[in-house]
Amino acid sequence: MIDVKNLRFSYKKGRETLHGLTFAVDDGEIFGFLGPNGSGKSTTQKILTGILGGYCGEALLFGQKPDAHPMDFRSQIGVLFEFPYLYTNLSALDNLNYFASFYPAGRRRNAAELLEMLEFKKDFLRKPVSSYSKGMRQRVSMARALIHNPRLLFLDEPTSGLDPSGAVLFRKIIEEERRKGTTVFLTTHNMLDADLLCDRVAFIADGEINALDTPQKLKEQKNSNMAEVTYLYENKRCTVSVELSRLSRVFPFPHDKIISIHTKEPTLEDIFIQYTGKGLIS
Fold first, then answer.
1. Alpha-carbon distance 235 to 264, whole Å?
2. Using one digit for the tens of pLDDT, what is the confidence trace for 137-154?
3. CA 195 to CA 212: how far, in whole Å?
4. H/E run at residue 228
5. Which of 55, 58, 59 has the alpha carbon at shortest distance from 11?
6. CA quadruple 46, 47, 51, 52: dihedral positive or negative?
7. Residue 6 and residue 210: Cα distance in Å, rounded?
8. Between 143 and 189, where is the model more confident?
9. Is the overall model pTM greater than 0.90, yes or no?
10. Using one digit for the tens of pLDDT, what is the confidence trace for 200-253?
11. How is 174-226 classified by DSSP, letter by letter?
């Protein structure tokens, strides 16, 4: 789906931003592209979506360069930008119907049904975007990215501005798109999103990829082989770190090495949703 080899780019002569990136994304994969501000994430995404040219190396999507056949290429990708790009004087429905008009009728999804799936407030369907919260704009932007059933989704900070229940909803929608065969290229600072969603992740810093693997394998590579145990003793709460090799002696099953131990308590996000139902609608 995506094949990048020795990708280099400079905004200014002599000041290279990307230093020879090489990676591939398979069909139907959710691929995380993670890094701090200024690492080259946005530059890479702009090249892959055909916004930036003038790069060196190779960047192929669907076997072709992003700028080779722009109209055909753009009809196959959907993009959710970190900062919602919507016409603020138009309503959610007007925005979506306008953007949908760029694509063949057979590719378009129903705008109202998309917004309902994204749990958008019905009272605001025909109100101008200027009156929306950040979370509401994010829902419209996601609908815009999905309106034409793209084969490849570029999602930049998709859960930004959403409450916990909204973030859970977005992750479910992203997983559903993948089940339909859509490939997802996800850029985010949110490690929870990356851990829960991504088949593989790449860590980029200073224009170079420092690591690329599944989230589980990356975590195992940096395992400290220590377990933190919290317990009560004489009505006091105590915490102690214990080597896994010491704990492994008590397990009643054959094993070579204990890789990790963790409990099954709910996350703070789980607790928030349990107490508040769907949470605060953004």
1. 23
2. 999 999 999 999 999 999
3. 13
4. strand 226-233
5. 55
6. positive
7. 14
8. 143
9. no
10. 999 888 899 988 999 888 887 776 777 777 878 888 888 888 887 777 777 777
11. HHHHHHTT-EEEEEES-HHHHHHH-SEEEEEETTEEEEEE-HHHHHHHT--SE
Tokens of 215: 């989230």
Domain layout of the chain by residue ranges: 2-220, 224-276
Rounded distance, CA 140 to CA 136, Å? Answer: 7
Question: How, if at all, do strands 2-12 and 56-61 pair?
Answer: antiparallel
Q: What is the 3-state secondary structure (H, E, C) of 235-279?
A: CEEEEEEEEHHHHHHHCCCCCCCCCCCCCCCCCHHHHHHHHHCCC
CATH 3.40.50.300 fits 2-220, yes or no: yes
In percent, the amount of the chain with pLDDT more than 70 equals 91
DSSP string, 58-105: EEEETTB-TTTSHHHHHTTEEEE-SS----TTSBHHHHHHHHHTTS-G
| Cα–Cα separations (whole angstroms), residue 162 to 181, 198, 208, 252 | 26, 19, 30, 44
- What does the alpha-carbon distance between residue 178 and residue 155 come to, in Å, rounded to a whole number? 13
Structure-token pair, residue 227: 């377990």
